[in-house]
Amino acid sequence: MAMTIPDDALPDQTVDGYSVERLSDYLDSGRTPRDPGIEGSAACRLYLISLAQVHDLSRASLEHEATREPDRDGRWISGLLESIRREVVGGREIPLGHPDAGIDLRITEAAARGLVRRTGDADGGVVLGATTFSGDVTTPGAPVTVEVTAAVRYGDDIRGVADDLRARIVETLTRHTHLTIAAVDIVIDDVFLPRTDDP
């Protein structure tokens, strides 16, 4: 079932030259017909993945809250979409070590933020907001603090969710990057209602 996010919830911005409204419409169409420009853009693909998560979450949230707080969800979704849009921009380059000194491997901050977001979104009880890397990610071995905002499912143990998310973020970034993670600071800044089909 396609869901269209209200126009006033969409930030008036673009991702790699495509408006967020165009990307939302493309996702609603099932990503068909295939748009090579969108599919060829890493930033657009990251945005579409995150937008699909927002669609699933917002459907249940909007159904439950529309009569009680009609403006709250529009603002929350708009803020979440804006965070996602900012995160898919490349950012600094993070070096990846390689045994051959002649090979220079790097990933962008956007790719690393995408790893963090996918880690968070793998748990249906968490929706990540913004992810920031504080510290010099361009220097191997330099300590880096990961700062994350998130919403948790209403009724879940917030401390337990945050501790589990922290451990999974450290494990994911350690496995896929060579960042030296000094800390993962998590701020739970909202809650959302579970979907009707959630356990």
Task: Give an overview in words.
- The chain is of the alpha+beta class.
- The protein has 2 domains: 1-89, no CATH class; 91-199, Alpha-Beta Plaits, CATH 3.30.70.
- It is built from 6 helices and 7 strands, in the order ββααααββαββαβ.
- It has helices at 20-28, 36-39, 42-65, 70-87, 109-121, 158-176, and strands at residues 14-15, 18-19, 93-96, 105-108, 126-134, 143-153, 180-192.
- Helix 3 (42-65) runs parallel beside helix 5 (109-121).
Topology record:
Elements: E1 14-15, E2 18-19, H1 20-28, H2 36-39, H3 42-65, H4 70-87, E3 93-96, E4 105-108, H5 109-121, E5 126-134, E6 143-153, H6 158-176, E7 180-192
Parallel strand pairs: 6-7
Antiparallel strand pairs: 1-2, 3-4, 5-6
In short:
The chain is an alpha+beta fold. It folds into two domains: 1-89, no CATH class; 91-199, 2-Layer Sandwich (Alpha-Beta Plaits).
Number of beta strands? 7
Radius of gyration from the alpha-carbon trace, in angstroms: 18 Å
Distinct helical segment count: 6
Any guess at the CATH architecture of the largest domain?
2-Layer Sandwich
List unreliable stretches of 5+ residues. 1-12, 58-69
Order of helices and strands: EEHHHHEEHEEHE
Q: How many separate domains?
A: 2
Sheet-strand content, in percent, reads 15-25%
So what's the overall shape? flat
- CATH level-four homologous superfamily name of the largest domain: Cation efflux protein, cytoplasmic domain
CATH third-level topology of the largest domain = Alpha-Beta Plaits
